[in-house]
Specification:
This protein is an all-alpha fold. It has four helices and no strands.
Length: 103
């Protein structure tokens, strides 16, 4: 328990920054009008594409014995891929509403 508290005390500044980023993200996304959700989804897809590349690089440079880094990298690749694919599906369905239907 002391080890965990020491690590928290050492990285206290980083923890504050992450918490502030979470609140800022909630405020920014919460105030976006629904008309802009499709462009935001496209931007999020691009960001998650970068996350996938970063996770692949981290997994490639990790030691074979470092199971935590490999598991976290694998989870980042899987979850990032799911987010990118889901974002493109949602964006495609939203854009489908604006296409003309040929009879």
């Amino acid at each position: 328990m002391e080890n965990i508290l020491e690590k928290i005390a050492i990285h206290q500044d980083y923890i504050y920054i992450v918490v502030l980023m979470i609140f800022l993200g909630i405020e920014v996304i919460g105030r976006v009008p629904s008309v802009l959700h499709t462009p935001l989804m496209s931007g999020a897809n691009a960001i998650h594409g970068v996350v996938i590349i970063g996770a692949i690089i981290v997994m490639g440079k990790a030691d074979p014995d470092n199971y935590i880094a490999l598991i976290l990298g694998f989870l980042a690749v899987i979850l990032g891929t799911l987010n990118v694919v889901g974002g493109f599906v949602v964006t495609d369905r939203m854009l489908e509403m604006f296409r003309h239907k040929h009879k």
